[in-house]
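Exercise: predict the fold of this chain.
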Amino acid sequence: MGFEQYHEPAAELPAEARTFARMIASLTEEAEAIGWYQQRLALEPDEQARAIMANAQEEEFKHFGMDLEFLLRRTPKWRAALRAILFTDGDIVEAGERGEAAE
């Protein structure tokens, strides 16, 4: 990705905004890796290779979660919204509406 995560001149952005952009880029990369492993697992016939890929995908889930938590700790509105959506039962769209109202 290089420096494409910046849409404004990087030198003009405060350090906090640059860190935030890097964490967003990391979150995106982890999500992509999870998806790539999912595709590989769907096609791989060798059981040992599948076990290795599944283990690697679990690491990507962990990294995704850590990146997300970092961002949520610095963005209280996001945390409030996601509390209404994540780890709940029922209709996801309705939970999303509650989350939007919680912001």
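Check your answer against the key: The chain has one domain: 13-102.
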